[in-house]
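FW: tagging you since you asked about this chain on Friday. Here's the raw sequence from the shared folder, copied in full. Didn't touch anything.
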Amino acid sequence: MPQEPAPADPGRDEPRPGDPMQDAPYDWEPVITRPDPMTEEEREAWLDALAGEDEPFDPEEYPDPEGPPPPGEDELTAEEIAGIRAPRPR
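HL: got it, structure written out here
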Protein backbone atom coordinates (compact mmCIF):
# COMPACT_ATOMS: atom_id res chain seq x y z
CA MET A 1 0.00 0.00 0.00
CA PRO A 2 1.44 3.41 -0.99
CA GLN A 3 2.45 5.64 1.90
CA GLU A 4 2.08 8.96 0.06
CA PRO A 5 -1.32 10.55 -0.70
CA ALA A 6 -2.67 10.46 -4.23
CA PRO A 7 -2.32 13.72 -6.18
CA ALA A 8 -5.44 15.90 -6.41
CA ASP A 9 -5.30 15.85 -10.22
CA PRO A 10 -3.45 12.70 -11.29
CA GLY A 11 -3.77 13.58 -15.00
CA ARG A 12 -2.75 11.07 -17.64
CA ASP A 13 -0.97 7.91 -16.57
CA GLU A 14 2.74 8.05 -17.20
CA PRO A 15 4.44 4.92 -18.58
CA ARG A 16 6.31 2.89 -16.01
CA PRO A 17 10.01 2.17 -16.52
CA GLY A 18 10.47 -1.13 -18.34
CA ASP A 19 6.92 -1.08 -19.73
CA PRO A 20 6.98 -2.75 -23.19
CA MET A 21 4.27 -0.37 -24.38
CA GLN A 22 6.35 2.68 -23.45
CA ASP A 23 7.77 3.10 -26.94
CA ALA A 24 4.71 1.77 -28.79
CA PRO A 25 2.98 4.26 -31.09
CA TYR A 26 -0.40 5.50 -29.99
CA ASP A 27 -3.32 4.26 -32.08
CA TRP A 28 -5.36 7.42 -31.52
CA GLU A 29 -5.14 10.97 -32.72
CA PRO A 30 -6.11 14.08 -30.83
CA VAL A 31 -9.52 15.55 -31.55
CA ILE A 32 -9.33 18.97 -33.08
CA THR A 33 -12.18 21.15 -31.95
CA ARG A 34 -13.19 24.40 -33.53
CA PRO A 35 -16.18 26.70 -33.20
CA ASP A 36 -19.25 25.97 -35.28
CA PRO A 37 -19.00 28.05 -38.47
CA MET A 38 -22.78 28.58 -38.46
CA THR A 39 -24.90 30.35 -35.86
CA GLU A 40 -28.10 28.76 -34.61
CA GLU A 41 -30.18 31.26 -36.62
CA GLU A 42 -28.21 30.54 -39.82
CA ARG A 43 -28.66 26.80 -39.28
CA GLU A 44 -32.44 27.17 -38.80
CA ALA A 45 -32.69 29.30 -41.96
CA TRP A 46 -30.64 26.75 -43.91
CA LEU A 47 -32.82 23.85 -42.70
CA ASP A 48 -36.00 25.79 -43.50
CA ALA A 49 -34.70 26.47 -47.02
CA LEU A 50 -33.87 22.78 -47.49
CA ALA A 51 -37.29 21.73 -46.24
CA GLY A 52 -38.97 24.11 -48.70
CA GLU A 53 -37.12 22.59 -51.67
CA ASP A 54 -38.20 19.00 -51.18
CA GLU A 55 -41.50 17.39 -51.99
CA PRO A 56 -43.36 15.86 -49.05
CA PHE A 57 -42.53 12.24 -48.28
CA ASP A 58 -44.73 9.77 -50.15
CA PRO A 59 -44.90 6.40 -48.35
CA GLU A 60 -46.21 4.71 -51.51
CA GLU A 61 -43.07 5.71 -53.40
CA TYR A 62 -40.80 3.99 -50.86
CA PRO A 63 -42.80 1.26 -49.10
CA ASP A 64 -41.37 -0.28 -45.96
CA PRO A 65 -40.13 -3.78 -46.90
CA GLU A 66 -40.69 -4.93 -43.31
CA GLY A 67 -44.19 -3.44 -43.15
CA PRO A 68 -47.49 -4.98 -44.13
CA PRO A 69 -48.38 -5.25 -47.83
CA PRO A 70 -50.44 -2.44 -49.33
CA PRO A 71 -54.24 -2.89 -49.42
CA GLY A 72 -55.28 -5.08 -52.32
CA GLU A 73 -51.95 -6.89 -52.39
CA ASP A 74 -52.47 -8.73 -49.13
CA GLU A 75 -54.79 -11.47 -50.45
CA LEU A 76 -53.48 -14.86 -51.55
CA THR A 77 -54.39 -16.38 -54.87
CA ALA A 78 -56.11 -19.77 -55.09
CA GLU A 79 -52.84 -21.27 -56.33
CA GLU A 80 -50.92 -19.90 -53.33
CA ILE A 81 -53.53 -21.26 -50.92
CA ALA A 82 -53.39 -24.70 -52.58
CA GLY A 83 -49.59 -24.66 -52.24
CA ILE A 84 -49.86 -23.89 -48.54
CA ARG A 85 -52.43 -26.64 -47.89
CA ALA A 86 -50.51 -29.29 -49.83
CA PRO A 87 -48.58 -31.71 -47.61
CA ARG A 88 -44.82 -31.45 -47.80
CA PRO A 89 -42.87 -34.51 -48.96
CA ARG A 90 -40.70 -36.09 -46.30
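FW: The radius of gyration is 32 Å.
HL: agreed, and Residues 2 and 71 are 74 Å apart (CA to CA).
FW: great, closing this out.
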